[in-house]
Write a structure and sequence with these properties.
403 residues; alpha+beta; 3 domains; six-stranded antiparallel sheet
């Protein structure tokens, strides 16, 4: 599972890595640093967790002439590239968890051809209307037709789960805008939509073949202008990641956000990424015939991070540039890291454990803050480097402090 996914918008990340990033030469980085009146300066490399495929590395490798198969073999050693077909995938629409949605026309001025199938198999073909609204009521869903621009009248009450299918494309307006990935208030896709009730809440799941799903993923995770081999490597990783998530033990397989992979439906489709999906059709990475958890991130900073399994190893990456980022953190921000009842001042910060491998002894795993609590009593607080990174909104935990 990816703890910090790759690009939300690849162009934004590219800018974040480039703007104001100092060169490696002359950077003095240490495991510990005193906190001055100005705070501390943190240096780091990479963007993301650094496990598996590095997206900038895939592009660098493609520019050196490597094929997509060679790229994924480098980032996931010991795996086999196998054909697994085009199974169905269920995508949870996170923006409307416990909400509702509206069916909008895909073409023309009306929604037509939609079939609603209720629990038990009862089917209703929805008459052509300008739009249809769907909302939960107890153990059922109300399918409502418009009365005015802002009011609805219930036409059908259908026992959950209810599946909406029929047209080649469904166009869904959310009751609440999606704030992750590309965001927006709607999604269009080729497939069906199921309204379920889980954990006492309304949930909505888009279902489609996995390669159709990828058409809304690959261009959201990597710039569509990048080299074909890089796009194909990203596609293989994304397909493998999704395939490994397929499970009959829950009502969905993947979420449409960074919690798994960005999926934004047809608005994300590009000709180049669709071509990459077609070129790699059905291909996934396996170990002993089983799809792996193909984690990936934007940039590993020139050294891959270990993932606790044989195909996620720590090693030098000659294809990913080792550009360094920097961040100044104020004393007040440092003192807030352990909560309002914790440290009132921080006098020093120290990395107490590293992963090994790469610069600075590898990625930070634990960090220690030394300072005082209320009343001036000395205190020391330890936290994971992941918590340290997230709370400070750092690009990665491949970091150290300026001397």
């Amino acid at each position: 599972m990816r703890l910090l996914p790759a690009l939300v918008t690849a162009a934004a990340v590219a800018g974040a890595l480039a703007v104001g990033a100092p060169a490696d030469a002359g950077v003095a980085t240490a495991n510990a640093a005193p906190a001055s009146a100005q705070g501390i300066t943190i240096y780091g490399a990479g963007y993301g967790h650094g496990r598996g495929l590095s997206q900038y590395g895939a592009q660098g490798a493609a520019k050196k002439g490597l094929t997509s198969a060679q790229i994924v073999a480098f980032y996931y050693p010991g795996t086999t590239l196998a054909a697994k077909g085009n199974p169905s995938l269920r995508v949870r629409l996170s923006a409307i968890d416990n909400g509702h949605f509206t069916l909008l026309p895909t073409t023309g001025s009306t929604v037509s051809g939609v079939v609603a199938t209720a629990s038990g198999g009862a089917k209703v073909t929805l008459p052509a209307r300008a739009k249809w609204h769907v909302a939960r009521s107890g153990a059922s869903y109300l399918v409502q037709e418009p009365v005015t621009a802002t009011t609805w009248r219930t036409k059908y009450t259908l026992r959950a789960p209810v599946t909406f299918s029929g047209p080649s494309t469904l166009n869904i307006a959310y009751s609440k805008a999606k704030t992750d990935c590309r965001g927006g208030g709607s999604v269009a896709f080729a497939g069906s939509l199921q309204a379920v009730i889980s954990d006492g809440a309304a949930r909505y799941v888009a279902k489609m073949p996995i390669d159709t799903y990828l058409r809304g993923v690959v261009a959201s995770e990597m710039p569509s202008s990048w080299a074909p081999a890089a796009l194909q490597a990203q596609t293989i990783a994304a397909r493998t990641y999704a395939t490994a998530k397929i499970s009959a033990s829950r009502y969905y397989d993947v979420i449409d956000t960074q919690a798994n992979q960005c999926w934004d439906g047809q608005t994300s489709e590009k000709a180049s990424t669709n071509a990459a999906i077609k070129a790699t059709a059905g291909k996934v990475l396996t170990v002993k015939g089983k799809a792996i958890s193909a984690e990936f991130s934007s940039s590993n900073g020139g050294f891959t991070a270990p993932g606790g399994v044989g195909y996620l190893v720590s090693k030098a990456d000659p294809y990913t540039a080792s550009t360094v980022w920097t961040r100044v953190v104020t004393p007040a921000t440092l003192a807030s890291l352990d909560g309002p009842q914790g440290l009132t001042t921080v006098t020093s910060v120290k990395v107490t454990k590293r992963s090994g491998g790469g610069r600075w002894g590898g990625r930070a795993e634990t960090v220690q803050l030394t300072g005082t609590v209320a009343g001036g009593k000395p205190a020391t607080v330890s936290m994971t480097a992941t918590s340290f990174r997230v709370k400070l909104d750092l690009k990665s935990n491949y970091l150290g402090f300026a001397q």
